[in-house]
Predict the structure.
Amino acid sequence: MTTTALEPRAGRRCHTVLNSLHATHYFSPDLGRELGTVGVTDPRAVNFAVRAAAFGAVGAGAVTAAFYNYKHELVARYVPKVWETAAPAQVLAARLRAVDATLRRLLGDEALASAEMAEAARLALRAAEACSRAARPLYSAHADLPVPEEPHLAYWHAATLLREHRGDGHLAALMSAGLDGLEAMVTHTATGKGMSPRWVCATRGWSREEWNAASERLRERGLLDDSGDLTERGVALRREIEEETDRLDRAPYAHLGPEGVARLAEVGGLFARAALGAGAFPADLIGKG
């Protein structure tokens, strides 16, 4: 019996589709509305609460460590205080309501009830069977949560598992490359595929002066040029980081197999493009400016 090997970047391409669907709720007005029903109204508190709630009522140190690229002083301003307003279980329930409302608004009820959505959920959950808990705190915490019954929420849940699994491995690759949280953001932005400096500073707690200092450190290492673009060494380092992330994240997609990965990317891509076309993300989110 012969088997077809998984193409090296197939998992990365599939992850990109899954992550796009997962991330829609972070920019959704439905999230703020639903968290407001449990008393969490500050947008930054909402952001920390919804992603960290799977850990339980942890302190700022655990959140800073797991999130990696947020300034600790910003995290500590909201965590653990946010748990005095809403318990993690309340936050998780509100988040799921927000995800439901967001996907219904972006994709429509027909898409959510479609055979393709059910297929996407089945394939993504199958891939997640091969995720590893070891040294992956955000994935492991979310893996303890129950799988929702509705197919679109089950798909979102599976996308979240796969997203956090890859993300945890990515942080290991960044640390191995000697990039701190802000330097990692600066180099990603320099690729033209990362968040703009304005969004990084607004959401991660860094000042523009700290951004500039990180850029200077990267120039001293020969990773950025004077215009803020990646040098050849910088491009090579980012490529090495992504390849190492691919290696650490290979198991779920190898478990699903080449045909399953291709089909999940195809079907998931339909939903991701529909969400993008419906205005799921701010127009100025990505870019170097």
Observations:
- The chain has a mean pLDDT of 96.
